[in-house]
Amino acid sequence: MTTWLITGCSTGLGRALAEAVLARGDNAVVTARDPSTVRDLAEQYPETALPLALDVTDAGQIQSAVAGGTERFGGIDVVVNNAGYGYRAAVEEGDDADVRTLFDTHFFGSVDLVKAVLPQMRARRSGTIVNLSSIGATMTPAGSGYYAAVKSAVEGLTGSLRKELEPLGITAMVVEPGGFRTDFSGRSLRQSAAAIPDYADTAGKRRKENDTTHGTQPGDPAKAAAAIIAAVEAADTPEMLVLGADATATYANVLQERLASLEKWRAVSENTGIDA
Questions:
Q1: Which domain holds residue 71?
Q2: Is residue 193 part of a domain?
Q3: Which is catalytic among the residues 45, 87, 146, 147?
Q4: Does the active-site annotation cover 144?
Q5: Is 151 an annotated catalytic residue?
Q6: Structural domain includes residue 264
Q7: 255 lies in a domain?
Q8: Catalytic residue among 133, 134, 144, 192
Q9: Is residue 263 part of a domain?
Q10: Active-site residue 133, yes or no?
Q11: Which residues, in sequence order, are bridge partners of residue 89?
């Protein structure tokens, strides 16, 4: 039986994934800043669900969650760094404190959890790390520079982590979702307090008061959860799992545009060597 530790289980993809792994009979440490939001899962699955409080910016709570899950189930097989939220602002508008909190949550919180669980995975020579990113890291839309930056940091870290862990029998995967029908663009979305008029036609269009995407996203969180489980269980777990038809189309288009730019500037790029 596989034991999962999933962050951010109160709503959205985290909640859908927790429900899916429990429904299939796996153990799950289901965490949220407010554990009362996941207590119903423990009531429904009293033998296999362990609800715990976890604010991923609190290193002590991270250690406690890993210790609690290990004590209850004997070890953690899969860690899913899902907790987080969206943040929108033109780069010039971004508040320093907000941006640091964003990185503490998405990046440093993920790092701390990975570091907390890796000793036991190395001892067993098995385990899977799943880090949630976003198609925003690839498409870098106006108004989401800081969010794209923090998710790009997660992706870069995971790529190196995977290479470090594969010889030890452990793997790491990035999940890059597109738009899914969650609270991401609604209740969970944060933005800068200031809005500079010069950015009204770029970043300004993505501010909450101007965004109409909430409730219309094409992705089904339950299907995303099933896809993540399938990738984790596969013999060839991918380095990156892109989720959603919107995300796969965007990802392919960005790759094509980058390749075209590379070819256009190839001669200039290559003409930078030391002359013999």
A1: 3-248
A2: yes
A3: 147
A4: no
A5: yes
A6: no
A7: no
A8: 133
A9: no
A10: yes
A11: 144
